[in-house]
Target: BD-FAE-like domain-containing protein
Amino acid sequence: MLGQGAAGIDDCVSDVRRAVVHVRRLAALRGLEKQCLASGGSSAGAHLALLAAMTDPGVAAVVALNPAGLDLLAFPPEVRRSIEQRAGIAAGRAIDYSLIEFVRPGSPPMLIQHGTADEVEPIDHVRRFRDAMVLAGNECTLLEYDHAEHAFHYPGNGRHFDDVIDATVRFLLDRIAAT
Model:
């Protein structure tokens, strides 16, 4: 995590990839099959889970809560530069981490839960990402929470916690049942 041992986003991506490999190894030792493994995260963690799943599929599904970085090039240049600086991305290299640039057929099913008033990643970026994923033939479900801001899903941050947990469980159980 940035500020906790990671110098930049590349360190974070490497950590996530190592974690996926480690979890796959542990799952195999315990007799769990790949179709039972899912990943997910919130905000920057959701970005990392999605990036890992889209570039090196190792999980059967991804749950992303208010993901950041879906369409970095849609931000005005000054905002993009600020994001690059805060995330440890080399100047002018936001395209290398903008998830919409990684959309290809064959990504694992994704559930994105996002607030319509998210101040970090605008809902129109999320809708554009979802549409690109579906157009590429991938399953990408977007659940929108009206007037919810970033981090809306945490206990105590509003009325959505139970709905987010219920939707996540249904999504994951449906994926496991389909295998």
